[in-house]
Design goal:
It is built from five helices and five strands; from the N terminus they run αααααβββββ. By secondary structure, the chain is an alpha+beta fold. Strands 1, 2, 3, 4 and 5 form a five-stranded antiparallel beta sheet that branches.
Length: 194
Amino acid sequence: MKKSLITKFFIIMLFSLFIIGCSNFSYVENNSQVVTRKLNKNFDESKLKNKYKNLYDNWELDTLKFELETDEQNIGVNKVIETYKHLLSKKIKNYENLQVLIETIKKDLEDENIDELQSFFVSSPKNFYFKKKLNTISLEEVNIFVNEPKLYKHSATNIIGLNYLDRTEYFDISYVFKNSVWKIKSVTEKIEKR
């Protein structure tokens, strides 16, 4: 009887140790999964930041908006996503402000309001030359063409074409975004290649 009691006690102890060991293994496994998820989250956030920053810097606003919406649906609310959603709304406003500036420049040229254009220029010798050149051109019969701007970080460029009689003159316009305002940084006359 003593032997059978000792055997039962021994079996119960082994069984208890086995159950405790398995539950500890499960605990270690769960903690490992949590740590792995945290590492993946940090890695994913880093990838997200790089992806969003690239799109943001290159002014790929529609793509950035799409990526933010898609990632928010797949990942859920995230600090990185929220930050770039806020930045995107500001960037869209800045783009709209540039479009307004370009349209204003075009309108002022059409109306021959050369003096009005001065407020949009950063003061420089190149810009002075451009304004002087505009004063020598009669803009009455001029057709003005403006292309879409190309943007990168805090700058943009586009081309303005002045077509009069049988001649077209092209100007590269560089813009800079400083103190929340777009300004014309420089104007360079493009020479036609024939």
